[in-house]
């Protein structure tokens, strides 16, 4: 069911079916964003609560006037700087976006992905695609077609294989308050890059217990094994039998390193695959050293904290 047949994916999406699609961030579970029945299938397949709105993916900026009613100047600046790419903008929605897509909110989240296969798909379709990450609700996001296959095989008609995702964690989500950008979810475009594009400091409202982006629950990306976080530079004092530790930089006694080459982009790219890998092995607590809290490291640490959270 993993396929490289773009035409088959197009046919299925036109028929209102679900297709797993590659993007540069993570794999998405896509359906026609303008068809409420197709979108309902996404919520059902993911077991996703109806209060958690979806991102709508577009192939071209020319679609925007149909989908939103206004675009703040800072949104234009951010699109110029980062589209196509791992940046999602939350803008006032037009009437053609069904309420189920936005969970009844008056705003819609929009993103133009950079992955060449996603772009070809979107440019071949007469509608945009609603797509959350293609994982069961609350679990680690998928960064390969096989990850989607492992968990949602019975729920999707086809998974389009675009190779391993280059960025490896989800897009940065930006909302606007009085026309000014506010970060709602840390992701593939760093806060520093957002700030240099708009030319001022930008606040980050990613606080977990009262999420501004409704899907941002404290516990998310949760593997079955218990995760204990270590501050950047820290290490476990002692490992009990069956426990595992993942360092940031390579360490002789660590199971794996998040960033073998010391690059934070590598840590982002490897994070979800590593969480899946350790989850497939029996064992106790997994100790993970955090990334430095800057650049993409903020998004890596955000995902680690949610993966570690226990209600
Ligand atoms: O990189 C990505 O963003 C991936 C790929 C597939 O594009 N998608 C993704 O979707 O991560 P999902 O559904 O797992 O996360 C979407 C996030 C959630 O935190 C959700 O609450 C927020 O975007 N969001 C969506 N619509 C929103 C809206 N209208 N207002 C505020 N937040 C919104
Ligand atoms: Mg998700």
The SSE string, one letter per element, is EHEEHEHHEHEHEHEEEHEEEHEH
- Given the C-alpha coordinates, what overall shape results? globular
Beta-strand proportion: 15-25%
Give the CATH topology of the largest domain: DHBP synthase
Give the distance, in angstroms, between the N- and C-terminal Cα atoms. Answer: 36 Å
Q: Count of DSSP helices?
A: 10
Count of beta strands: 14
Strands side by side in the biggest sheet:
1-8-2-3-7-4-6-5-9-10
Description:
This protein has 311 residues and is of the alpha/beta class. 29% of the residues lie in helices and 18% in strands. It contains 10 helices and 14 strands. The radius of gyration is 19 Å and the shape is globular. The relative contact order is 0.16. The mean pLDDT is 94. The structure holds threonylcarbamoyladenylate (TXA) and magnesium ion. The site of magnesium ion has 3 residues, from loops.
Short description:
By secondary structure, the chain is α/β, with parallel strands linked by helices. The chain has helices spanning 6-14, 36-46, 64-67, 73-82, 99-102, 116-124, 145-152, 191-198, 264-279, 297-308, and strands at residues 2-3, 19-21, 28-32, 55-57, 87-92, 107-111, 129-130, 158-160, 172-177, 180-185, 227-230, 244-247, 256-257, 286-289.
């Amino acid at each position: 069911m993993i396929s490289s047949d773009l035409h088959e994916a197009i046919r299925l999406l036109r028929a209102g079916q679900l297709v797993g699609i590659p993007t540069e961030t993570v794999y998405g579970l896509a359906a026609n964003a303008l068809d409420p029945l197709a979108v309902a299938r996404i919520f059902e397949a993911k077991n996703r609560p109806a209060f958690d709105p979806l991102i709508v993916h577009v192939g071209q900026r020319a679609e925007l006037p149909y989908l939103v009613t206004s675009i703040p100047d800072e949104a234009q600046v951010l699109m110029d700087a980062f589209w196509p790419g791992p940046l999602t903008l939350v803008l006032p929605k037009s009437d053609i976006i069904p309420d189920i897509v936005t969970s009844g909110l008056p705003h819609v989240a929009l993103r133009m992905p950079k992955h060449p296969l996603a772009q070809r798909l979107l440019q071949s379709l007469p509608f945009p695609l609603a797509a959350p990450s293609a994982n069961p609700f609350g679990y680690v996001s998928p960064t390969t077609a096989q990850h989607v296959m492992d968990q949602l095989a019975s729920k999707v008609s086809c998974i389009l294989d675009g190779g391993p995702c280059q960025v490896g964690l989800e897009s940065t989500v930006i909302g606007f308050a009085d026309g000014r950008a506010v970060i709602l979810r840390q992701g593939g475009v760093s806060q520093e890059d957002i700030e240099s594009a708009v030319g001022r400091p930008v606040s980050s409202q990613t606080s977990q217990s009262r999420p501004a982006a409704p899907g941002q629950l404290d516990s998310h990306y949760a593997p079955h094994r218990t995760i204990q976080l270590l501050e950047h530079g820290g290490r476990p004092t002692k490992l009990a039998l069956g426990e595992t530790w993942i360092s940031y930089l390579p360490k002789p006694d660590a199971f794996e390193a998040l960033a073998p080459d010391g690059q934070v982009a590598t840590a982002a790219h490897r994070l979800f695959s590593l969480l899946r890998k350790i989850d497939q092995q029996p064992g106790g607590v997994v100790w993970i050293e955090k990334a430095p809290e800057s650049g993409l490291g903020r998004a890596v640490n955000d995902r680690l904290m949610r993966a570690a959270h226990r209600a």
